[in-house]
């Protein structure tokens, strides 16, 4: 027998306390947001009120749906798609719109592609200039989503996106139309190729010069080999775990592989669920009411319980702000002390997300967290039956989509465990604070004997400088690598994923190594202790600008501290280093307004939200 989520104990005190803290802090913003959504609802279902010329323009691109759209009685679903075939994860969306239109008609509705949003691949831009556009592409996606839905010819929306900035951007834009019911539609991970640890080993061998470019390219292509999301548990797959915990997917939709009957039926169910929760149904479920403080807390909890991507310490606060909610790193830190680590998925273990799914996947984790009183089971979801449905597994039985209870035991307890026997009693994140500012560290992938690093600093302004020093043998010692001027205002806060192989090599050689930066690390990064998102950033006066080569830096994830061990009087008297000139090329100059307007990482590093006063 499977444990019943319905018999879960009362909410854990730590979870209740953090939720109350967020609710209290968010009262003014949340009240203003809900008032706006009520005004939008009262004026927003106005397709029949549009002028005839307006409607003619809206319907001119469709044929078979025109008569049904014209009478204005059926829901018209706006499809916002992040399709392109440069992202393997999004290449699967190629034929989704035409299929979704058929499924909408089956449900008595209609559907149109409302618009497309940009979707860049961080895997392609890692280490290069285009990566400096990556974080701010999230704001561009949010604004493109708003443009797509601004025609006011839709009574619901389906949001097609999976990867790093795309899901947060879609949600941030869609939440400004939160009076509409909406569903997130994932595409699923590619099937497993070369194991992630083997790929990482080849990367490290290449960094040491032991293998050549052809061997590295062969390994990378063997790992990233087909359509679907990359199979490591990085930001993209953490997105999918959070959407399950927020109740915005059809239950269990996260990790079904593309081009399978199960994936097709999950997408059909998503489309056909929208009319059932629409404005003229008896079960109206608008997005803005689904995404409340409890749903945001659920997203944070599953992120911690699965050792998810550190990028969401930026993205989740930004998503929350779009709904009038404020969550900060202190909330994550408090939750992390109460939420056990239930999974070991690469980079926190050897299994990929396909192995995770086979062992129980998101439904197993959600069921167990509900059993432990560590999720809000009363959130409003898009699912018929409520949040407990997200603790059941979808499958095809007699050609139909059904959901079944999971076994009590994990399918593989080296990958996912029950609430009674976690990998660790705490989640994967800690806050670090001291005279260098406030940073985050992901400890779930780092061996505990490396949670404390004290070593001389070597200071850099770019990833390329670090790689050059590594190749010259200048870092073959205990060292804290400091990479500054990587924050949102300086250069868009790129991920510094290219540093993972050389730092990993240094650690493998027996040196005590850490990274301290005001930039980001990839959601796939692990192994080496990294103090990231350091705020305030170096540009504009952050204390990271005072660090000099040779300063002793102490990173202590046990105590939650990060400090330059420099005499206080000397530290106070030190001048900041000169700020580098602003870069151009690769379109970066077009994003200067976002650099200048971005707020700090803990608030979401968003110029758009800051300018909107959110």
From TrEMBL:
Alphabetical list of Pfam families matching this protein: ILV_EDD_C, ILVD_EDD_N
Enzyme class: lyase
Cofactor(s) in the UniProt record: [4Fe-4S] cluster
EC number per UniProt: 4.2.1.12
Positions in coiled-coil regions: none
Catalytic activity entry: 6-phospho-D-gluconate = 2-dehydro-3-deoxy-6-phospho-D-gluconate + H2O
Domain spans labelled Dihydroxy-acid/6-phosphogluconate dehydratase C-terminal: 415-605
GO molecular function, one term: phosphogluconate dehydratase activity
InterPro entries documented for this protein: 6-phosphgluc_deHydtase, Dihydro-acid_dehy_C, DiOHA_6PGluconate_deHydtase_CS, ILV_EDD_C, ILV_EDD_N, IlvD/EDD_N
Ranges of residues in domain Dihydroxy-acid/6-phosphogluconate dehydratase N-terminal: 76-386
Pathway given in the UniProt record: Carbohydrate metabolism; Entner-Doudoroff pathway
Transmembrane segment boundaries: none
UniProt keyword annotations, A-Z: 4Fe-4S, Carbohydrate metabolism, Gluconate utilization, Iron, Iron-sulfur, Lyase, Metal-binding
SUPFAM superfamilies: IlvD/EDD N-terminal domain-like (SSF143975), LeuD/IlvD-like (SSF52016)
Job description of the protein: Catalyzes the dehydration of 6-phospho-D-gluconate to 2-dehydro-3-deoxy-6-phospho-D-gluconate.
Alphabetical list of NCBIfam families matching this protein: edd
PANTHER family in the cross-refs: D-XYLONATE DEHYDRATASE (PTHR43661), PHOSPHOGLUCONATE DEHYDRATASE (PTHR43661:SF1)
HAMAP family: Edd (MF_02094)
Protein name as it appears in the record: Phosphogluconate dehydratase
């Amino acid at each position: 027998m499977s444990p019943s989520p319905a018999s879960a104990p009362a909410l854990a005190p730590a979870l209740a306390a953090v939720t109350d803290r967020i609710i209290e802090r968010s009262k003014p913003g949340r009240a203003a947001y809900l008032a706006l959504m009520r005004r939008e609802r009262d004026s927003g279902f106005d397709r029949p009120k549009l002028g005839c010329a307006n409607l003619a323009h809206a319907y001119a691109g469709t044929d078979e749906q025109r008569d049904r759209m014209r009478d204005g009685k059926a829901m018209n679903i706006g499809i916002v798609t992040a399709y392109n075939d440069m992202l393997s994860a999004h290449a699967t969306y190629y034929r989704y719109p035409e299929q979704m239109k058929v499924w909408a008609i089956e449900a008595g509705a209609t559907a149109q592609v409302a618009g497309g949003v940009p979707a860049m691949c961080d895997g392609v831009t890692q280490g290069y200039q285009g990566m400096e556009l990556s974080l701010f592409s999230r704001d561009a996606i949010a604004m493109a989503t708003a443009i797509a839905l601004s025609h006011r010819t839709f009574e619901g929306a389906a949001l097609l996106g999976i990867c790093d900035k795309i899901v947060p951007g879609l949600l941030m834009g869609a939440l400004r139309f939160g009076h509409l019911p909406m569903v997130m539609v994932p595409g699923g991970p590619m099937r497993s190729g070369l194991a992630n640890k083997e790929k990482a080993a080849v990367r490290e061998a290449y960094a040491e010069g032991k293998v050549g470019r052809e061997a590295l390219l062969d390994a990378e292509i063997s790992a990233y080999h087909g359509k679907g999301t990359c199979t490591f548990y990085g930001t993209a797959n953490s997105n999918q775990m959070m959407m399950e915990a927020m109740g915005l997917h059809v239950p269990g939709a996260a990790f079904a592989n593309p081009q399978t009957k199960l994936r097709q039926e999950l997408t059909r169910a998503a489309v056909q669920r929208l009319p059932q929760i629409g404005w003229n149904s008896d079960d109206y479920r608008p997005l803005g009411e689904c995404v409340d403080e409890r749903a945001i807390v659920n997203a944070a909890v599953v992120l911690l319980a699965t050792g998810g991507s550190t990028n969401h310490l930026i993205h989740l606060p930004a998503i929350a702000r779009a709904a009038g909610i404020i969550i900060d790193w202190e909330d994550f830190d408090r939750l992390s002390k109460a939420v056990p680590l239930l999974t070991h998925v690469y980079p926190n273990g050897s299994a990929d997300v396909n192995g995770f799914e086979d062992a129980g996947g998101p439904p197993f984790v959600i069921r167990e967290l509900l059993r432990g009183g560590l999720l809000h089971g009363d959130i409003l979801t898009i699912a018929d039956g409520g949040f407990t449905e997200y603790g059941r597994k979808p499958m095809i039985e007699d050609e139909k989509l059904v959901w079944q209870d999971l076994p009590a035991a994990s399918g593989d307890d080296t990958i996912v465990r029950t609430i009674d026997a976690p990998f660790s009693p705490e989640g994967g994140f800690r806050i670090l604070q001291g005279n260098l500012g406030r940073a985050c560290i992901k400890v779930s992938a780092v061996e505990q004997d490396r949670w404390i690093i004290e070593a001389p600093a070597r200071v850099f302004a770019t990833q390329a400088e670090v790689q050059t020093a590594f190749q010259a043998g200048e870092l073959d010692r205990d060292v804290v690598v400091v990479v500054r001027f990587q924050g949102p205002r300086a250069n868009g806060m790129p991920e510094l994923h290219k540093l993972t192989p050389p730092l990993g090599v240094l650690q493998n050689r027996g040196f005590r190594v850490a990274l301290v930066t005001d930039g980001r690390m990839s959601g796939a990064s692990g192994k080496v202790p990294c103090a990231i998102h350091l705020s305030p950033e170096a540009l504009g006066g952050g204390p990271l600008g005072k660090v000099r080569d040779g300063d002793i830096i102490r990173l202590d994830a046990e105590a939650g501290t990060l400090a330059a061990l420099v005499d206080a009087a000397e530290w106070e008297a030190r001048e900041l280093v000169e700020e580098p000139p602003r870069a151009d090329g690769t379109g970066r100059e077009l994003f200067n307004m976002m650099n200048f307007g971005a707020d700090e990482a803990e608030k979401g590093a968003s110029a758009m939200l800051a300018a909107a006063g959110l």
